[in-house]
Amino acid sequence: MSKHTIRIVGGDYRRTPIPVVAAAGLRPTPDRVRETLYNWLQHFWEHDFSDKRVLDLFAGSGALGFEAASRGAAHVQMVESNPEAAAALRALRNRLHTDRVRIHAGDARTVIERLGAAPFDLVLLDPPFGHDWLAWLWPRLPPLINPGGLLYVESEAKLEVPAPFELLRQGRAGQVYFHLLGFSGFAATQKTVNNQE
């Protein structure tokens, strides 16, 4: 299977091609879904990403994380276990000449244990399907997210959202469900929003 490319859909790096390596379980988030997600984020963050710290825990092609960097996020930490995919992430980061993106080649489990209590404003989760990642992740996510922070999750089914998270928005694209969750106190600082299908 040969490489193909997708493109960054918004921000300073808009239309920049992202190479997608042929790796098992790598499933780039479609353009329309990324555009929807970042419209949601712009709403909640009032179009200001400049002080936001983002963790993309299953980076894959890097599409989700590079969209955050493109919109001016202060720091984007990407984690990817596939060596070829991680190398492609570094190559794109270098081509963009940005020091706001860090690439960590390694397993998400190991990285979470090393991060400890890290103050991220947004955690992006697009794990390989069929491996029950979310069950393992739920209890380990709270120390990674600032109070009032956000969590984005892609999954093969609608989520049953555990406390202290709350569902803010959701949608579906083909067989993929995508969700934006608020963490611990998010609702206290935001107006109530309706879920979107």
Would you give an account of this structure?
With 197 residues, this protein is an alpha/beta fold. It is built from five helices and nine strands, in the order E-E-H-E-H-E-H-E-H-E-H-E-E-E. The strands form two sheets. A seven-stranded mixed beta sheet has the order 5-4-3-6-7-9-8, covered by helices on one side. The chain has a two-stranded antiparallel ribbon with strand order 1-2. The radius of gyration is 15 Å and the shape is globular. The model is unreliable at 191-197 (pLDDT under 50).
Which homologous superfamily in CATH is the superfamily? Vaccinia Virus protein VP39
Identify the CATH class.
Alpha Beta
Instruction: Provide the succession of SSEs.
Output: EEHEHEHEHEHEEE
Number of strands: 9
GO molecular function: methyltransferase activity
Keywords: Methyltransferase, Transferase
Protein name: 16S rRNA (Guanine(966)-N(2))-methyltransferase RsmD
InterPro entries: RNA_MeTrfase_RsmD, SAM-dependent_MTases_sf
In brief:
The chain has helices spanning 31-44, 63-70, 83-96, 108-115, 133-137, and strands spanning 4-7, 17-20, 53-56, 75-80, 101-105, 120-125, 145-155, 165-173, 176-183. The protein is α/β, with parallel strands linked by helices and 197 residues long. The chain has one domain: 3-Layer(aba) Sandwich (Rossmann fold), CATH 3.40.50.150.
Topology:
Layout: E1 4-7, E2 17-20, H1 31-44, E3 53-56, H2 63-70, E4 75-80, H3 83-96, E5 101-105, H4 108-115, E6 120-125, H5 133-137, E7 145-155, E8 165-173, E9 176-183
Parallel strand pairs: 3-4, 3-6, 4-5, 6-7
Antiparallel strand pairs: 1-2, 7-9, 8-9
